[in-house]
Amino acid sequence: MNILLCCSAGMSTSLLVSKMKRCAAEQKLDYHIWAVPIDAVSREINNADVLLLGPQVRYMFNEFKNLGEEKGVPVIVIDTVQYGKMNGREVLLTAEQLYQDK
Predict the structure, then answer these.
(1) Cα torsion at 19, 23, 66, 42 (round to 10°)?
(2) Model confidence at 10, in pLDDT bands (50, 70, 90)?
(3) If both were cysteines, with which of 4, 43, 44, 75 could 68 make a disulfide (CB 3.0 to 4.6 Å apart)?
(4) Where in this chain does the record put each PTS EIIB type-3 domain (predicted)?
């Protein structure tokens, strides 16, 4: 699965991406997980199975949801509490559920 995360500059999610990658590796899951800034989403979404938005860019949800619908990529905003805790395991589970519900 290819999991794309988006935040303001692509930097605040780097720790979360690292934690998600570690969790996926522990489970021997072959996932590609990466983060980009807002302006790179339109280029990167074609490589993604799901798009997770950081809470700080929730204002872009409708725009990215429409883009995701065009590309067949489901989009959600990461839970603020899980994002704040940098809970890679829970965010990974959220991505997996979003993919399964697709």
Answers:
(1) 60
(2) low
(3) 75
(4) 1-102
The phi and psi torsions of 55 (rounded to 5 degrees) equal -55, -30
Q: What is the pTM of this model?
A: 0.95
Structure token digits, residue 13:
């999610």
CA distance 26 to 77: 25
Catalytic residues: 7
Query: In the chain, what are the domain boundaries?
Result: 2-101
Domain 2-101 annotated CATH 3.30.70.1150: no
Could you tell me the pLDDT band of residue 12, with boundaries at 50, 70 and 90? confident
CB 69 within 8 Å of CB 24 = no
